[in-house]
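Extended Data, panel c. Modelled sequence:
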Amino acid sequence: MADEHIDVLIVGAGLSGIGAGWHLQDQSPDRSYLILEAREAIGGTWDLFRYPGIRSDSDMYTLGYSFKPWTEAKAIADGPSILKYVRETARDYGIDQHIRYGHKVTSAAWSTEAACWTVTSTRSDGTSVQITANFIFLCGGYYSYDGGYTPQFPGADLFKGEIVHPQTWPEVLDYSGKQVVIIGSGATAVTLVPEMAKTAGHVTMLQRSPTYVVSRPAQDAMANSLRKWLPAMLAYNLIRWRNVLFGMWFFRLARNKPQAVKKNIIEMVRQHLGPDYDVATHFTPSYNPWDQRLCLVPDSDLFEAINQGTASVVTDHIETFTQDGIKLMSGAELKADVIVTATGLVLQVMNGLKIIVDGRAIDPGQTLSYKGMMYEGVPNLASSFGYTNASWTLKCDLTCEYVCRLLNQMKRTGFRQVIPRNSDPSVERQPWLDFSSGYVQRAMDKFPKQGSKAPWRLHQNYAMDIMSLRYAKLEDGALEFSNPKSARAREAVVA
C-alpha cells in the first residue's frame, strides 16, 4: 500500500526540477506534483560542487530559465550566483513548498491495470516510502552524485600529499603556497587552474591530450546596456536569442568547415599566449571542434595565469604516482603537494532508477529514445536532458513544455497512458550521443539508442526542437495513447 498518490512525481530539485515545477504550475495547474530530492538542499550540481572557482561553462542568458530573466552583470556566472538564482526561482514561485528532501528514489514499477507508477524512495534515516504517481518526470541530471570517475593510477597509495576529486571537495583544503597538479583538461580543470593559481605556489594542468579552449568576456556588454533601456524580460529574450543563434551558427560552421574553425580557435589561443608558446603541443587537439565539448574561459583567465607564470600545462602520460608527485612516461617528474583528479563524471541513465513495467525490468540500453526525452516501451515517463553543444536549460525548458502538452492531452481525452512505440523497421539504431569524450564513451552502452529518423533522432538543435516539441502534433504515429478511463468517467470528461 502506497503512502500517498500524486499526479506528477519529479525526481530532483536542481536546475531542471525547479523548472519542471514552474511549467507544471503554469501550463498544467490542475495537476498535483511533488519533487523528491535525495540531498538536503535545492540546487543539484550548483549545490553539490564546492571546488574553487566553480562557474557556468555557458552564458546565463541561455542557461537561465525562459521565464525568469538573468539580471546579474556577469554572463559567465559563478556557482554561488547560479545557486542563488535557482533557489530564488523556487521560493518566488512557491515551488519549494512541493519539495521533500532526503528522499532518494531507487525504483519505479508501472501497472497498466492501475495506470500508475509505484515509486520507492529511501529517506535519509534509512526508512523506505512508497508513492504512487500517474506520471514520472526525471530531472536528476545525467551523472551519479555518489562520486566522480577516477582511474586507477599506479602508485597512488605512495603519494604523501592529498588527492582530491572535484566532486568531493573537502570543506577545508589549504593549498596556499603549495605545488598543485590538476589531472585533466576539461571544463573543471580549466576552471580550477586559474582560481587555485591565485594562492598556490604553482599549478600544473597535466593532460593526456589537449582540448579546445576559447575565451569570452565574463560580462556581456550589450546585455548590460540593453537592461538599462528595456524591460528586463525583453532585454533577456533579445540576448538569449542572439546567443542561441550564434551558437547554432558556430556549431554548424564547425561541422561544415572543421579545419577552418580549428585554425581560428588555435590562432586565438596563440594570440593570448604569444608566438613562443608551444600551442601545437598543449592546445591543438587531434579531433575536430565539437567532437567533444569546447571549454570556455572567462576573460582569458587561464591564459593569464599561464602568462604570469603561476600556472603551466604539461601534455604527457602518467607512469606512476610517487611519494612526492607524479612520474611521467617521458621520464619527467612533477612535484606536488596536492593532486586534483579532474578526470570526469560517472554518467547515469534514468537517474539510476530501477524501472519495471508490468513486472518486466527495463534495460534502457535496449530502448530507443523518443525525441531525446521518453523511452520506447516505457509509459508515462520522461527525462529532462539538455544539449551537448548548447546550454542545458534550453532543451529542458522545451521538454517541460512537451510533458505538459502530453498531460493536458491525456486530461482532455480521458486516456491514462502514453507510450512511445516504434513500428518502423527501417529505423536504424545509433549511439545516443555522437561525442568522443571519455566520460561519454564509458557509459554509452547503458544509455538508450537514438534512431536514424524522426521522432527517434536527436537533433541537438534548439530551433528544430522548438518545432518538434512545441508545435508538432502529438499524434505522430509513434506515441500511443491508450488505457482509457471507464466509460462513465470518459463521459464526464467530455461533458
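Residues 4-146+347-494 form a domain with the FAD/NAD(P)-binding domain fold (CATH 3.50.50.60). This feature is highlighted in the accompanying rendering.
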